[in-house]
From TrEMBL:
Domain of life where this protein originates: Bacteria
Function: Involved in a late step of protoheme IX synthesis.
Residues annotated as transmembrane: 41-62
Originating organism: Vibrio eleionomae
Annotated Pfam families: HemY_N (PF07219)
Name of this chain's protein: Heme biosynthesis protein HemY
Upper taxonomic lineage: Bacteria, Pseudomonadati, Pseudomonadota, Gammaproteobacteria, Vibrionales
InterPro entries: Heme_biosyn_assoc_TPR_pro, HemY_N, TPR-like_helical_dom_sf
BP term (GO), one: heme metabolic process
Pathway this chain belongs to: Porphyrin-containing compound metabolism; protoheme biosynthesis
Entry keyword Nucleotide-binding: no
Topology with respect to the bilayer: Multi-pass membrane protein
Cellular compartments annotated: Cell inner membrane
Signal peptide stretch: none
Amino acid sequence: MIKAILLFIILGAGLFVGTEYSGQQGYVLISIAHKTIEMSVTTLVIVFIALLAIIFVFEYVVKKLLSTTFNTWNWFSVRKMRRSRRLTNEGIIKLLEGDYKQAEKKVIRWAKHHDNPLLCYLIAAEAAENIGDRKKRDRYLALASEQNASTLAVALTRARQLFNEGELEQSMNVLQSLQADHPNNVILLNLLKRIYAQLGKWQSLVELLPKLHRYTNLPEQEEQQLTVQAHQGLIAQVATRHNMVEDLWDHWGQIPRKAQKEPAIAVCMAKHILEINNGQPAFDFMTKQLKKAPNSELYILLADLDEAHIKPALTLLLKQLGRDDNNAEAHSAAARLYSKQQKWSEAQHHLERALSLRSSVSDYALLAQVLEKQNKGQAAKEVANKALSLLP
């Protein structure tokens, strides 16, 4: 539209000038060195227009030739890229089907013509890994690392392959080198979770748990299991390294309150304290935990206290049974403590009550011993047979 308007303006101006100055062509003299050129203004305008026309025609021809050449070249390039994409797609399907040789062959054949060669080399590396050809795998990973924006994808692939080979330390080192730039990457976090658990890096696992909770779809049950496993491992490490109750107490104070409420973690702590000192420290810890919440396993562990704490432990158990007479583990623990005091009838009463609530091979075995101590041989034999029948 603008060009048409300009054309009409020029034509109008030309008509006006032509009409106004008709018969007055003017005179033009061009002098270059020793040569002169004379012409009228009209002739100059015609020559100028002719030169512009020649220039425009030349420009059009050149553009046409270049466009044809480019289109021809582009056609071949697009054809190669499309073929590379098709082969790559077929290679991915072969990889999923387990035909690793065909997968490698298809993706690597036209990888240089693919618009994202990184994808081709990574798939080829996976295929070579599954075939067991580590030399090819490493070569493909090296080619992948030469591509743009390949650091994360190549490193994660490498770390996962090292993990599958059992090279856990090396895999961990690769992943940790990525943490600064990619702290919330889901694949990185999940892989570190598995490595820390297998290597017993419990402190690292504890520090990783908040990110796993926030950035991954970690099931609640698995999160609880990992929390228990990590803190149990840390408690065991502290107990083994120092073998001092004070160090265990210090460590317990550093455990988050939510984790302290986990029964399995409290039981682990109690067991290690008992191994070091089965007297007052163990009694104090278990009493404190049982006041917060009942714990069946802690009731059983009360029976492992030294002789000086049998009476206070029995007092604690009987008080609990006064509140809840259906606590089988408390009855079982009381029976064991009475057995240590050789109070056989009391032990028998609590064992029978515990067994009425649930079956237990160990309780049946202890009941047989208690009956034997009371010269009840036939009853002891029947109970012993009952215990044997429960064995797998």
